[in-house]
Give the backbone structure.
Amino acid sequence: MIDLNADIGFRNATKYGEELCGDHMDVITQEDGSTVIVLADGLGSGVKAGILSTLTSKMISTMMAKGLPISECVETIAKALPICSKRHIAYSTFTIIRLIRNKEVEIFQYDNPLVICLRNGKNYEFNKTKLEIDNKSIYYSRFDLCENDMFIAVSDGCTHAGIGESLPFGWQRESIISFMEDCYSPTFTSKAVTTLLFEECMRYYNGKPKDDTTICTIRMRKGEYLNVAFGPPVKKADDEKMMSTFFERKGKHIICGGTTANIASRYLKKPLVVDNPVYIDPDVPPVASIEGVDLVTEGVLTISKVLLYARDYLGSNRYYYRWSSGKDGASLISRMMFIEATDIRFIVGQAINSAHQSTKLLPVSFNIKMQLVAQLSKCLKKMGKNIQITYM
C-alpha cells in the first residue's frame, strides 16, 4: 500500500468593508498522526461572526487534540451552538475533515456547503449518513483514501459569489465542481488549486466580496522526504555522528550554513565549491555546492527569507512568483519545502556561531536560530507537512 501524505492549502477573504473575517480555520495533528482540519463560519460578518467561528473551531480542535472521540466532539459542539431566534439558523456552522493516519477520511458537515471530492480529477459523490443531534442535521462520512484524492471545503461565501448579479443564484456547488474538473491537474499543489478557485470566486464578486469567504483544499499524495541540516553540533566530536545521521536518511538533502557545509565536505570527502558566487538576490547570500548534496546555502539569513515566504504562502501568497521561479537559495529551499516535500526532517546543531556575534546586520544568536526553526516548522505543519526536529 502506498504511503500517502496530505498537502493542505487554504485562503480566505473578509467581507468588503469589514476588518475581521467571520470564518476561522484550524489544522491540528493528533497523537496517532491523524490530521484534523476544522472550518467554522460564524453567523453574519465582522467581530461577532469572527468570535463565534473562532470559538467553534478552537473548541473542536482542543477537544480532538486531547483525544476525545470525534463523534463526542461533534455532539458537544452541536448541543452548545445556539440557534438565532430571528433567522432560525445556527450561530456558527462547521466542517470537520479528519485524515486518519492518511489511510481513511472522516467528514462531519453542519450547514456549510458540502465538501467536494475529486478522484482521478472527476467528482466523487461519497456516501453521507444523516445524524440528528439536538435537532440539528449533521452529515457524516467515512471512506478509504486514494492517491491524488482532492477535497475542497468552502464557506458559503464561495457559493454566494455573484448572487443577484452575474450569477442570479450564486456560484452553485455543481458549477464549482465543473470548474474544478476543468482545471484539475495531478501536478497542482493544494495551494495552487485553492488560488485558482479563490481568484475565480473574487472575479464573480468583482473584487469586493459580499460575504466572508474561505477555501481549503487537501490533496493526498505519495510521500517525498526532505532533510535539512542547519548549524554545527555543540560538541565538535559529534560532527561525524551528525552527518552520519543526516545522510542515512532517505530523500533529498539540504545543508544550511557555512560551518555545517565544511563539516559535510569533510565527511563526504568532497570539496565545497564556492568559486565565483552569483548574487541572484541581493538579500540572499549565494549558494555553494558539494557532490552528494542537493543544495548548499548560507544559514540564518537564507532561512529567515524562507520563513517570510512560508508565512506569506499561508496568507495572501503574493510572493509566489518570486520563490516559485527564483534561483537564489531561499527560493530553491521554498520550492523543495512547500511544493515537493511531504515529510521534512531537520537536524539542528545547537552550537553558537561566533562569526555571527560581531555582525552589524543582526545580533544573531543560538536563540534566533532555534526560533527560526520553530516558527518555520509551525508554518510547514499548517501546510500539512510532517515535521521532525533533532537537536545536537
Observations:
- The two ends are 34 Å apart (CA to CA).
